[in-house]
Amino acid sequence: IGEWTLPGARFPLEMAQDADSGSNSLLTYQLTSNPFFSLVMKESPDGSNQPELVLERGLDREKESSFVLVLAAVDAGDPVRSGTVSIRINVTDANDNPPVFGQDQYRARLSEDAAPGSRVLNVSASDADTGNNARITYGFGKMPAKVLQKFMMDAESGMITLKEALDFEDTRGYTLRVEARDGGGLVAQCKVAVEVLDVNDNAPEITLLSLSSPVPEDTPAGTVVAVLNVNDPDSGENGQVSCELSGEAPLSIVASSGGSYKVLVLAKALDREEAAFHELVLRASDGGDPARTGTARIRVTVVDANDNAPVFSQEEYTVRVPEDVPVGSVLVTVTATDADEGPNGHVKYS
């Protein structure tokens, strides 16, 4: 009897046979007590009574899959004689139970450097039905193509594996919609939240936003020479950056108020006469293990300022001249130099 059978349904039973005659062959029937089934008698055209089994209430194979009843036929003789037969009722399954996942939502964590083919999670669903109605296949529900191209599902086992490489800096997590479908077409759904874990796979990036070069050598100390942006797309300690400046130059580096911009400032006065330009290397290192480093080279040219007076080769020249020296004769040549360059270093005499 199918578990979908409605109460009131009747099932004819085999009639008993008694070889006696008269009252000795008059038969009545009795059925063992059971809340699901009762016995009624249907009168046949020949006057005999046909026993029928009546379903009294709805069946549920998942609660009780079979029944064993005993039907007794009793004659009216003296002494009374009876015969019995066992009735085994098997309840046929109906696909009245959808698959059920062990959890409504699963969570998985996967490092962004996980190789394609890595296992993500194994989902599992059960079905209280039997046979094909309980055979479950797994698949993904409707999701964006970007998600579907990253993961794949084994239809039989429910194992989710990585299909494409992950990138934490591109996407930090995915929500997968998973379906379990039984052989009768009933479907259950659950969600799988995949968290992508950051790996220190990015070195700090240094961007030069502005550079004042050339710089006059008389520029006051504390003047901003260059502004840089230092960025690391990683997270946590992997994205925390510290900067240092190397190179022999009267320049230093400080962090701006926001913390992401680095400013080069004059630590002390420049002197073009000592160095006409400065080569600097900015090194930015993150807090990962192992740490990654980014570098940038900066060249600052120093422009001359007229900060040097001409200097004679001697502080005093002594010239002895005969009194009869002709007019127009060269008596002495004096020489002065100026450490500045260009017009600032061009010397005139008077």
TrEMBL record:
This is PCDGE protein. GO terms for cellular component: plasma membrane. The gene is Pcdhgb2. It is found in: Cell membrane. It is a single-pass type I membrane protein. Gene3D superfamilies: Cadherins (2.60.40.60). Keywords: Calcium, Cell adhesion, Cell membrane, Glycoprotein, Membrane, Repeat, Signal, Transmembrane, Transmembrane helix. GO terms for biological process: homophilic cell adhesion via plasma membrane adhesion molecules. Residues 16-101, 102-206, 207-312, 313-350 form the Cadherin domain. Pfam families: Cadherin. CDD domains: Cadherin_repeat. GO terms for molecular function: calcium ion binding. Its main location: membrane. InterPro entries: Cadherin-like_dom, Cadherin-like_sf, Cadherin_CS, Protocadherin/Cadherin-CA.
